[in-house]
Amino acid sequence: MSSGTEAEPGGDPGPGDGRIAELRLSIDDLDRRIVALLAERTTVVRTLTEYKRDEDAVRSPGRVEQVVAKVRGLAEEHGMPPAIAEATYRTLIDELTRLQLDRLAERRRETAAGARS
Ligand SMILES: O=C(O)C(=O)C[C@]1(C(=O)O)C=C[C@H](O)C=C1
Fold this sequence. Notes:
Elements: H1 17-49, H2 55-59, H3 61-77, H4 82-116
The structure holds prephenic acid.
């Protein structure tokens, strides 16, 4: 029966368990801050979307590569593998592009409905 204090449920308690639990609390705290910043970034992207007129503007491949190059450089400065920053941001930007395309389609429907009424 698990005591709930070991590093992995069901495993035997080990000498590093206290430290693992402590480090996981640090990770949980960092995740709270990271997601808050990502939410703030997403709000800015949503606002920016309202100024975009078409799919090319939404996709902005040149800007995507600029952001990826920037975050790779920042990762290096902070001693983090740049590939992790790149993969994270490519996933983030893919999802934000999808969100922007959905919004663009919604705006087009609104405009078409307005023109009919
Ligand atoms: O810079 C833009 O135009 C954005 O829409 C933001 C962002 C990003 O998340 O950095 C998202 C989608 C791409 O078009 C390019 C960049």
